[in-house]
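Hi X.,

You mentioned you wanted examples for the new student's onboarding notes, showing what a folding record looks like when two proteins sit in one file. Here is a clean example. The first protein comes first, with its sequence line followed by its structure tokens.
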Amino acid sequence: MSKLPLFSPIYGIRPAKGKAQEVVAPPYDVLNSKEAREMARGKPWSFLHVSKAEIDFPDGVDVYSDAVYRKAGDNFKKMIDAGMLVREKKPCFYVYRLQMGAHIQTGLVVGACIEDYDANRIRKHEFTRPVKEEDRAKQIKFVQAQTGPGLIAYKQIPEVAAVIKKKTGEKPEFSVEGIGGVIHTLWVLGNEDDIRVIADAFERQAAVYIADGHHRSAAASRVRKFMIEQRGAAHTGAEPYNYYLAVAYPINEMKIWDYNRVVKDLNGLSPEAFMAIIKGSFEVKEAGGRAKPAARREFGMYLGGKWYLLKPAAPAPVKTDDPVLSLDVSVLSDLVLDKILGIKDLRKSDRIDFVGGIRGLEELEKRVDSGEMQAAFALFPPSLDELIAVADDNQVMPPKSTWFEPKLADGMVSNPLL
């Protein structure tokens, strides 16, 4: 039994001709149940009925109950039976373009080899939480398909870029507008020569990198182990469950946004005392407007209705050869969140929250001005090179370090288990 290639084509399940706008929905983890229920109102074929099936139950249902997962599976089957979703007759790659304003990125929907994920050839940069892994694993088992893609970054490959460029010169299978005006466009790439070029080119890569979707990939690995046990001697190693649904983009086309911090209290300090301590570690300059950092080692701070720009007064006391400790999020945690505010575990503390940069600095102002939070910190986004350095060093980034936008949609393509 030979190992699968790093990336394989899949028997994708996708919207039927003319049905994509009715089906395609935001990813499951960017909406809460209330928002999803509102968005899906009057839209019986929205993929939210699969990805967030609790919307088909009364308020208050346990979203982790088997009944909700079972409903997701029933809804998925119903969409196939009604002809809203169709399964590819042969394995294909797909070209998936995201356009948000002037930003465009074009990549590939692939089956990513789970053995390579387990061996860290598909490299990670975040810890996962078992409860979230279990949630995604149960979703996959009940639906009998992976419906939420992971996001993978890869270093530019000229021969892959050439295939993508050729394909995007043709008419797409469909193009839909998602939330925020993002345009999602899909081409089916079924030419066997092109498939071979892509698979062979990626097989020559030493590594690719998970940008987002660590829980989706970890869940797929769990489900593969389950399926191997279930199938016993019938397992061949080539079944669709041996790879997980992912969309891979070249690093140079991807955009990481800032992931900012808001804190509920100043650890017993008055704003004046807190500011005095801050001035011991930073050069502090009051900003005329919102203080959006323009470079590494710059931090914006919103406190008492005013914005300040902070720069470490001396070189940050970090090991510059450690890719994690040299991140701006680590510097802020070390100098402010830990030493001054006593917030030592970002994963567990209920005194801190995180705001994706797509919401803008006005969201930080809103959270503080409302009295919900006492202070906010704006960061310069990490680079993909920094992410790769962490992953290549077999380390993980601090929690909530990266925010990728635009987001992939659910329902564009799903990967069946069998």
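Then the second protein repeats the pattern, sequence line and then tokens:
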Amino acid sequence: MDLMKETHPVFDEAEDKSVVRCSLTSCEKCIGRSVSMCSALKDDEIKLLSDISINISKRSKQVICAEGEMAEYLYNVQSGCVRISKMLSDGRRQIIDFLFPGDYFGLVCDNGYNYSAETITDVNLCRMPRNAILEKIKEIPAFSKKILDITIHELLETQEQRLLLGRKNAKERLCSFLLTINARSSKVGFMKKNHIFLPMSRADIADYLGLTIETVSRQFTILAKDNIISLENSPLVRIIDIEELQLIASGG
């Protein structure tokens, strides 16, 4: 089943094929157009943005940008799933976020990327030079406000992640995670109601939630046994009892 259908004529840079410059037509077809940073822009403003953007594609398990590299580009996920992570000084990995269509990364950086971004599935991306984007902010007031909104949202998500790791038990963490991914899938409308697309591995989920793989697998099994979720069609998870899932997530 193609859950993340490509909507852009993109090429794979890894195979030395040319990239394709964005156009107003391709932007209109973008699955995240209504929810992403571009949602604040009118057609003529989108044209200004598309003039400095290119569409690229990456196969699964490829690095898009690495922690410490110069932060030259801002990326918009058009299709697929991206993993954002940091390496700790002792060699452990902390996954910061999973990104889906409509999500941006590379915006809140200093001189270098403070995380690594890797593809979990085949991914289509819109890539924009950060310096050029900063210039466009001056030209398009609505764009500036939308970027501020995105920045505030990222800060709120960081606070939620701290709560998740600091106060919730294993079952509460997993239920919160499932509800978050469900909400993000529904936002762009590529999943049926109460279905969650989980292309990431159990190890990825464990590194996001601060748990072991065994604990994550055990909690999935418990939720399925209690008829709260169904794990019949990987990578799909179906929510059977969303009220109970919400109750557990909230610590009830």
